[in-house]
Amino acid sequence: MSTMYVRYLEEIKLKFHQLSLVSLKQMVLCYSDLVTQWKEVSVNLHKSCTNYHKHIDERVCSFVSMTCPPL
After folding, report:
1. Distance CA 12, CA 6 (A)
2. What pLDDT score was predicted for residue 1?
3. Rounded CA gap, 43 and 69, in Å?
4. How far apart are CA 24 and CA 18, in angstroms?
5. Of all helices (H) and strands (E), which one includes residue 49?
6. Residues of the chain with pLDDT under 70
7. Widest CA span in the chain
C-alpha cells in the first residue's frame, strides 16, 4: 500500500514538474514575443521621429530661404 502511495505521489510530482516546464516555456515564448514587438515598435517610432524631424527641418529651411535675403 505505501509503495503504491509513493508511486502516485511521484507521478503527481512529475506531472506538476511537467506542467511547470510547459508554463515556463509559455512564459519564455510570451516574453520573447513581447520583446520582438517592442523592438518593432521602437524601430518604427524611431523612423517616424526621424521622418518628422526631417520634414520640420525641410520646412524651416524653406521658410528661411523664402523670408531671409541671402548674405
Report:
1. 10
2. 59
3. 39
4. 10
5. helix 2-67
6. 1, 69-71
7. 102
**Distance from chain centroid for Cα 17:** 28
d(CA 23, CA 10): 20
Q: In degrees rounded to 5, what are phi and psi of residue 26?
A: -65, -40
Q: Tell me if the pTM is above 0.90.
A: no
Written in H, E and C, the secondary structure of 29-43 is: HHHHHHHHHHHHHHH
For 28-41, the pLDDT digits (tens) are 888 888 888 888 88
CA dihedral 33, 30, 28, 41 (to 10 degrees): 30
* Assigned C-alpha cell, 46: 524611431
Q: What is the dihedral of CA 30, 33, 34, 36, to 10 degrees?
A: 160
Distance CA 18, CA 9 (A): 14
